Amino acid sequence: MAPSVASDGRSHSLSAVLPLLTGALWRAYRRDQLPERVLQFGSGMLLRGLCAAAVDTANRAAARAGRIVVVQSTAEGAPRARALNAQDGLFTLVERGLSGGAPVERVGLIGAISRALTADDQWNVVRDVAANPEIQVIVSNSSEAGFRIDAPFPGRLTDALHARFSRAPEAPLVFVIPTELVPDNGPRLAAMVRELAERYDRAQTFRDWLKARVRFCSSLVDRITTAPPPDQHAALEATLGYRDALLTVTEPYALWAIEADPAELRTVFPVESATVVFAPDIAFYRERKLRLLNAVHTAAAPLALLAGVRTVRDATAHRLLGPFLKRLLFEEIIPATDLPVGEARAFAHAVLERFANPWLEHEWCVIATNQEDKFRIRVVPLIVRRRSPGLALAAAAHLTFTRAPFDALGEAARIPEFAAATTRWMAVLAQGGGGVEAALGETARCT
């Protein structure tokens, strides 16, 4: 790594003249001697902070996990692909957060990515990569909205797998590992691919090959990653001594749970660690994260935005939202799950510490993306199991914020007492900022 440069008020001007991060700064291991083993659909911060970091850690331990070829599928993400190539696939990972109340900070270069391709302009090259027998893992992160059969990703994945079937039918098994936060994402993606495969053959030979040669593995990812504000980005670059367009800031906590035969996956993807778990069943990890982290985010986002609170960290320090988050977790959500109470409470305490991370700018407006789908998947099942004041207020804020019809709450909308409570809260919230404070204050007295 380049010598550090002290960060001060001149960081903005300093970063403009710093050299660009390139392979000339790499020292850790011989990247050029490792084969390309992973095809990754998506170049966003989550996959950089989790998948690329896991492969890099394995390579540093001489496990020869290989290198990653990134496919950028969206036009808005094309600048990331160009930046990856300009930086020889390198980026800086900054881990900042709290652990037991004490600050933790780690900074390092990640060298697991070999190159980036754009799907719109380089699809033939993507097909070549997919047909390479040394590629044995395909990872995706297309968001919940892109995880449907009429979206581009399933069709592109099917075409890439067909290229492998056509050119290298005897190639080793390939493991497809979706990371989209959708229940049973492995089987669901497999079903989409099998349906789309009908376009390629009427004799079923391609579909038979898919069944024999492709393993679709459900997975669960858990790591909060954010883009640092421009001033923090510039200050970090000044400290590092180089410019990095893909500088990635994340929390110290990380978990990637992959559902597969551990022995089978281990032979082709040697990335197991304290943060990467291979297990025959990951239902516990999925339910724990979906309900105790994601459901809290989705339930609280509209309420925080209606209250004019910008970030999760700000919400934890807010005199009303902070206690509301804690009550929601411990008194309403945990009792609505089947999770072991002791483990659930320990994880919930860790979640609140993660929410209070002073170095992450996790904005509620970003969390509220695709709010309607997220609320239906993450929160409605909790409401059905346990009607309570905080969840009713969350539903009212959700409907107020999204302007969705009441029946968008699905099964929850048909529960009379819950519907009545939600309708009443919506009338309170309609009063504006004062209504939000009044509602939060009343829920505190109800629990």
Q: What's the alpha carbon Rg, rounded to whole Å?
A: 23 Å
Helix content: 40-55%
Distance between the termini: 53 Å
SS-derived structural category: alpha/beta
Supply the number of helical segments.
18
Question: How large is the share of residues in beta strands?
Answer: 5-15%
**Major beta sheet, strand line-up:** 5-2-1-6-7-8
Q: Residue-averaged pLDDT, rounded?
A: 93
Low-confidence segments, given as residue ranges, are: 1-12
Q: Describe the global form.
A: globular
Total count of strands: 13
Major β-sheet annotation: 6 strands, parallel
Task: Describe how the helices and strands are arranged.
Elements: H1 11-17, E1 36-41, H2 45-60, E2 67-72, H3 78-86, E3 91-99, E4 102-110, E5 113-118, H4 119-131, E6 137-140, H5 152-167, E7 174-178, H6 185-197, H7 205-213, E8 214-216, E9 219-222, E10 225-226, H8 230-240, E11 248-250, E12 255-259, H9 262-266, E13 276-279, H10 283-306, H11 312-317, H12 321-333, H13 341-355, H14 364-367, H15 371-385, H16 389-402, H17 416-429, H18 433-446
Parallel strand pairs: 1-2, 1-6, 2-5, 3-11, 6-7, 7-8, 12-13
Antiparallel strand pairs: 3-4, 9-12, 10-11
Overview of this structure, please?
The chain has a six-stranded parallel sheet with strand order 5-2-1-6-7-8. A hairpin with a 2-residue loop joins strand 3 (91-99) and strand 4. It has helices at residues 11-17, 45-60, 78-86, 119-131, 152-167, 185-197, 205-213, 230-240, 262-266, 283-306, 312-317, 321-333, 341-355, 364-367, 371-385, 389-402, 416-429, 433-446; strands at residues 36-41, 67-72, 91-99, 102-110, 113-118, 137-140, 174-178, 214-216, 219-222, 225-226, 248-250, 255-259, 276-279. Helices cover 49% and strands 15% of the residues. The model is unreliable at 1-12 (pLDDT under 50). The protein is built from 18 helices and 13 strands. With 447 residues, it is of the alpha/beta class.
